[in-house]
Amino acid sequence: xxxxxxxxxxxxxxxxxxxxxxxxxxxxxxxxxxxxxxxxxxxxxxxxxxxxxxxxxxxxxxxxxxxxxxxxxxxxxxxxxxxxxxxxxxxxxxxxxxxxxxxxxxxxxxxxxxxxxxxxxxxxxxxxxxxxxxxxxxxxxxxxxxxxxxxxxxxxxxxxxxxxxxxxxxxxxxxxxxxxxxxxxxxxxxxxxxxxxxxxxxxxxxxxxxxxxxxxxxxxxxxxxxxxxxxxxxxxxxxxxxxxxxxxxxxxxxxxxxxxxxxxxxxxxxxxxxxxxxxxxxxxxxxxxxxxxxxxxxxxxxxxxxxxxxxxxxxxxxxxxxxxxxxxxxxxxxxxxxxxxxxxxxxxxxxxxxxxx
Length: 357
Description:
Layout lengths: L23 E10 L12 H15 L9 E4 L5 H9 L5 H4 L6 E4 L5 E5 L5 E8 L3 H16 L6 E2 L3 E2 L11 E8 L1 H5 L3 H9 L3 E4 L12 E6 L7 H29 L1 H17 L5 H16 L8 H10 L2 H8 L5 H24 L2
Antiparallel strand pairs: 1-5, 1-8, 2-3, 3-4, 4-5, 6-7, 8-10, 9-10
Helix pairs in contact: 2-11, 7-8, 8-9, 9-10
C-alpha cells in the first residue's frame, strides 16, 4: 500500500516560477470541523467513530476535489506507511498515533487531504507550492462548502465552528507557510524574528508542525488565533508577516554572499563534497547539508545540481520513504547507509546529465 506515492513527487513540491518560491516552500490551509449530531471523537464509541468515517467517505465522494480520492483506514496501515504520510505532510503526527478508528482521504495529486477522527471529526487540508495562501483558501473554502451541504457541522452563531480545542473555535482555520531560512539561522537572527512574530499571534513550528523540530532551517509559521477574525483577515496577516521575513532572509543571503563570497562558496562546496562521498549520513545531518546546497543554488553560487533534485532528495531520504523503497524495515544504522547511497547515486546521475553535450 502507498507504493504509488514513491513514483511521483507531490504537486506542492513543484515550485512555481516566483522569486519568493526559493524561500516560501509551501502554503497550507487547514480547517477543523465536527458533526453536530455526534459527540467529539474523544467521547465517541468505536461504532460511532466508524459511522463518522462512512458518512464522511460518502460525502467526500460527491465533491470534485475528493471524488475518487485514495482512502485509507488507519488500522490497515503499517507504522512505516503511517510515517510516510506524515513525511509527505498529508497527516499530522498526532493522527498516526491514534488507536481509535480513523481514516484519511487523499487526492491523487496530494494537494487535498481529509483526516477523519483526529482531534476533531474532520481536518480538511489543502497544500499549495510556494506562497499561495489565497489560492489554497479558495480551494478549501469550496471543498468545505460542498461538504457542509452533505454533513451537519457543529456551528454556533455566537462562537462559530465548534472544535475540541478552544484555540480552534471560530473559523476553525490554521493557515501556515513553510519557510527555508538558512541565512537568518546562520546570522543568529532567527530567534529575534520568531520572538517578534510570536507577539502578534503567529506560531513558529518545525517541519512537521506542532512539537516537531526545525530541521534543515525549515520553519512552519501559522496563525494562533481563529476566534473573532475572518478567514480573509487571517490569510492577509500571515501573508504580510511572511513577506517581511522573506525580504529579510533575501537581503541577508545577498549580504552574506557579497561580504564573504569565498566563505559562502566554501560552505556550499563542503556540503556538496560531504553529500557526494559520505558512506553514512544521519537524517538531520543530510537535511542540513541539503539545505546549504539549496541556498547555494538560490544565490547562483552553485550550479552542479538543480533545485528540483535537492527538493526531491529532502523528501526521499526521510526514514519511512527509505524503508518503503527498500521494501523492508531498516535499523537506524541501515537507514544511514541507505540514505548516503541514495544521495550519492542521485548526485552522480545529475552530474552525468550535466556533462552530456
